Structure formats: C-alpha cells, structure tokens
Amino acid sequence: MATTTMTMAKALNEGLRRAMEKNKKVLIMGEDVGKLGGVFRITDGLQKDFGEDRVIDSPLAESAIVGTAVGLAIRGYRTVCEIQFDGFVYPAFDQIVSQVAKLHKRSDGVYTMSLVIRIPFQGGIGAIEHHSESPEAYFAATAGLRVVSCSTPNDAYWMIQQSIEHDDPIIFCEPKSRYWEKGEVDTENPPAGLFDAAVRREGTDVTVIGYGASIKTIMRAADTAAVEGTSLEVVDARSLAPLDLDTMATSLKKTGRLVVVQEAPHMASIGSEMVAELSERCFYSLRAPGVRVSGYHVPYPPTRLEEDYRPTVDRILDAVDRVMEFES
Amino acid sequence: MIGEELVQLLTPEGERVSNPEYESTLSGEEIFGLYRDMVIIRRLCNESTSLQRQGQLALWAPVQGQEASQIGAGRALAPMDFTFPTYREHGIAWCRGVPPEDMLRLFRATSNGGWDPQKYRHSVPTIVLGNQVLNAVGYAMGVQRDGAEEAVMTFFGDGASSQGDVLEAFVWASSFNTPVVFFCQNNQWGISTPMSIQSKIPLYHRAQGFGFPGIRVDGNDVLAVYEVTKRALESARVGGGPTLIEAYTYRLGAHTTSDDPTRYRIDAEVEVWKHRDPIERVKSLLVREYHVKSPKFDDVRDEAEQMALKLREAVLAMDRPDPITMFDHAYAAPHPLVEEGRREMVELGVSGGPH
Fold it and tell me: Whole-model pTM?
C-alpha cells in the first residue's frame, strides 16, 4: 500500500493531476486557476504542466464558466469548473439547473453532461460575507444533479477523480476549513465508491451523521462522549445526493438513535432528508426521534460570530444527551 | 428607420441592390431552392398554428416574417457546423434536416427535445433564453481544442440580447477568439417589449464594445442573409473569431399561440412589414430575372401542402408516451431515487413496465 501524508488541498491537486494525465479531454476552468493556482492553490502548477488550453484562466463570470463547460461536454470534454467560493455559485445557478441538470434528459441521452463543479463550501475560516455558505441542498433538490463532499485528504484524492470519470454532472463540495489539514492518502486503492457513506468510528449508542467539515467536529464530540460513557457511531455521508441510506440505516438499526450535523440551516436541508428517510426505514428500531444540529435560520453571521453559528462539539453533545434521555 | 448600414442585396420589390462588400453568389436554381425552403417553412408554421388552435398542440411559436433570416442562415451552414437554437428556429431545423414532425414533439408536449442533436448537428431547443449562447461558445472552445475547421452558430432574439448569459458569451468569445457566429434575429418585439426598451443603440453595435465585428443585415432578404452568414462562418472556421449578425426582421405573427399582439402593437406597423415580405421579394426576382413560370411555383405550393398533410397525420399519431419513459435518461448512471420512482410506477400499474 503506497500511502503518503498530504493536506486535502494537495490531495485534490494530485487527484486533478492524475485525472488530467489519464484523459486528455479533462479540462479545468475557473477564475485564477492558472498562474495563481486558484485562491486556495488547489490547481497549483497544473497550468504550467498541462498548458493554457487545458487549465483555463477565465473571465470573471460564473454563469459562463458553467455554461461554456456545458458546450464543452457536448463536444466530448470533461471540464472541472472551479467556483471560487460558495457564495459566488448563484450566478451559475440558472445554467446548473436549466441546462446541466436537464440536457441529458432533453437530448434523450445523446448528450453526456460530464462536468464537475467544485465549490469550496462551509465556514470556519473567518472570511467576510458570501465566503462561508452551505448551498448543497439547492443542488441536491434538483433532479439530474449529484452532490458529494469529501472530509479527508484520501477521500478528496479519490472522489475528485471518481467525479471526473462519472458521466453525470457532479457538484463537488470541498470543506475549505479542512484544506490545510493533513492525512494519509493511499494512491493505489480507492476507499469506496463515490456515492458510498463511510463509518468513521464505530459505536453502539447514537448514530451521528455529517459531512464535510462537520466530520472532524463530530469525531471530537465522539471522543468526549466516550469519556462520559456514551458510544457514538460516526457516519460520513460523503454523497449528499443520492444518500447512501443503506449504510446509514444499518448503523441506525444498531444504535436506535440519530443525530445529524450540518452547517446549513435545517429547513429543507440534507439533514432533514436524512431524518425523514431514516425514520421511514428504521421506524421500529428508533428509540428516539432524529435530531438535527444545524446552522441557525439566519444569514451566515459576521465571522467573529461563526463559531456560535456552526455546530460545535457542545451542541452535538447536547443533541446526543437529548436522544439519550428518551431511554428511561 | 433601418439605417444606411444595413446589408441588403434585394429590395422589398425584388430588385437587386449593389453592395460594395457583398454580392450574391447564388445561381437561379439555388435561389429557387431558398424560395422553396421559405414556402415550406411558412406552410409548416401555418399548419402548426392550426393544429394548436384545434387543441392538438400545447403551444406553437410562429416564425412568419422571419423565414429569410432562418433559411438564409441555415443554408449558409456547412454539414459539420453545429447550431444552438431557441424554440423558434424551425427554419434552421429544416435546413439541418430535422424532420418536421420532430420539431413538433416539444409543442405536442410529448418530449422536451424531439430529435437527435448529434445526428443533425442541431442542438435541442433552449427555452431559458440566453443559456444556449454560452453553451455554443463552450462547444466552440471544444472545436478550437480539437483543431477542427468547424463553425458554431447560435440563435437568439432582441429580447434575449439583454440576458447576462448573452453578454458573458460575447466576453468569452472575444477573449478566447472562439469560432462562433452569434445570429440575433431582431424581430422588434420581445413578446410585448419593444426593441427601444432592450437597447438604445443598434444591437450589432454592441459587438464593437466586446472587440469583434458586428453587422446588420436585412433579415427579410434571403440573399443578403445567406452571404453575410456564409462569410462570418468562413471567418470563424479559419480562426477569424466571432461575429455578431443582427438580422433586422419582424415577427408578423404572435410571440406564441398564447400571445395577443393586438394589445401592444398597431396594425399599421404590421402592414408596413407585410410589404417587406421575405418570400414575395424572392418570387419577384425569380419571375423577373430568371423567368420562372407559374407551374414551378405551383409545384412548390403542392409540395408544401403535401408536407403539411403528412405533418398533420404524424402529429395526430403522436401518442402520449408511456409514463415510465420519464425515468429514462434522467441520469446517465443508475440512481436510487429514479429506480424507486420507476418501481412505484410499475407497482401502481400506471405503466406496462420498464422500457
């Protein structure tokens, strides 16, 4: 097993590099992705090695980044679009919903919408407004799209390659606050399929499901809970649309208690969908109603306040206590 | 009103106009071919309007008045070129070889597309206007990377010219010098919105601000549209970059069969434009210069009638698809929610089963 330690940013960079080496039709397009290597340096050095025709520094217009990637897909290319920050994806929303999601269907399967839209999402970096949002539910709710999120360097390395190789359009959500954290990357064997959830920690009392940046917070909560005598099973959803409900239900049938964690507000969210689906599937195994730990229903606050907005270890543990209290 | 910069090779009376930049390269036989195309498209349009009025189509988007714009542009294309239409490009679809009944699947509401876009090199209809213009520029970026000598042409109107996507497409095409022709049919009305609200300057002037040539052509003059488009496509194929063509024309009919243009425009204006009819002026030329006689025109009329009859039969035979087909091609790869829906539909007995 060839494992290397690297940051998530480097793992994404290596994954992109490998995809570009494997397939000449793979392109990268976005603002500042070339010489600068992207504002987060995810595409660092790729333009130098693959040329300006394959790593395209684009004008500043998100609808065009996605809209031209659609045309490139029709021509047989696989474009990885970089949206600089979550809050800047909305100008492209029309192209994503009206064309990216629907052209395969509208062409009776003739067009393959083989493109990946990378979005650095969630908060935790102390940025100014529009740089810390969690827009994943908008895309998950749109038929024709798939949405995934990585939480470790190993997943980042493999999931970006699997997304590029996939024939459906993928919204690829990267937890920007974890870009600089290191982890082991196995460059030979993929950890799982692109749409598989992963059990990050086994436990017996409560199933806690999250994704992206929340996974690390949940793992900390699990450490603390263990000290207090409560055993948490941590499931990383990885794929937000579709959801790997089988893996989640297997865990929930064992524990009987569910907490879901996300930075997005819970109204019409990924977490709400998990609770609804899993309640239906695991009704007779449930010992407590599923509880959501989410961002509050307010615009993302000034980031001096963001740690009171994003789910914290304390808020997760509080939710764990609430589901445990049902056991009397 | 139209301005001296309009490229015109044929007056509304069918008399030739000399132009320092452009001259018609078409033979009498070829001009007759364009006449035939336009007559057939007008007949197709009338038949489709009737079908809608009789409850056989959900909607129809008429093209009367714009036949010269579409046939001139459509016939200037080379087989390997690729086109990105709106929902009103029936003349372009005809030139690309799309069977008329396939054009009506969208309006019969049995399909959201209707034809194989790769087979005809004519993309499926875009209803969210402006989107297709960016898609065309992206396709043209692919052509560039393939090193192919192909052009891409995309269609939009004066209404969509205000869309951000169209203006972003201008930026992209200019910055990357993509082989794309922007063909804008300025038919003067975006449903009820007059041209004066879309732009304070002639639309073709916008190209200059983006750094590529713009040209205004008499959109009711099929000879001029053909030559102007042909040159723009040739330039695109050999690295000359984008061109904006503003085909100055008029929508003689309603925006769609759901529209009532009498609420927003006066009959006198429509009358002026009827005098500029694109089909009559070519017919005048064919009679005067090429001595085409009635029987030949009658043959075209009969051919158009036959096409309309066949079209009607085909449309009436277009049944409601099996509901299970809604699950086909929603995704390229299997998807659990799609499978769940398909299963439920079969269990409910709504469908005969998977196709």
Answer: 0.97
B171–A167 CB contact, under 8 Å: no
Name which of B84, B289, B294 is nearest B180 in CA terms. Answer: B84
pLDDT tens, residue by residue, A161-220: 999 999 999 999 999 999 999 999 999 999 999 999 999 999 999 999 999 999 999 999
Q: Which domains can be identified in chain A, with CATH numbers?
A: 3-186 (3.40.50.970), 198-325 (3.40.50.920)
Residues 6+ apart with CB under 8 A from B331: A104, A144, A146, A168, B338
Q: Do A252 and A285 touch, CB atoms closer than 8 A?
A: yes
Q: Is residue B13 part of a domain?
A: no
Identify the CA nearest to A73 among candidates A29, A138, A121: A29
Q: Find chain B residues with C-beta within 8 A of A106's C-beta.
A: 112-113, 124
Task: Give dist(CA B180, CA A75) in Å, integer.
Answer: 14
Identify the residue among A20, A78, A108, A167 best suited for mutation to test binding to B, counting B beta carbons within 10 A and taking the highest: A108
Distance from CA of B113 to the nearest CA of A (A): 5
Could you confirm whether A131 is annotated as catalytic? Answer: yes
Residues 6+ apart with CB under 8 A from A312: A217
B91/B142 same-domain check? yes
Alpha carbons A297 and A264: distance in angstroms, whole number: 8
Q: Are residues B301 and B335 in the same domain?
A: no
Q: Are B297 and B276 in contact (CB under 8 A)?
A: no
Residues B329, B301 share a domain = no
Q: Which residues contact B342 (CB under 8 A, 6 or more apart)?
A: B324, B327, B354
CA distance B147 to chain A (A): 12
**Which residue in A63, A104, A146 is closest to B168 by CB distance?**
A63
pLDDT value at position B354? Answer: 57
Question: Among all chains, which residue has been given the structure tokens 């080496």?
Answer: A21
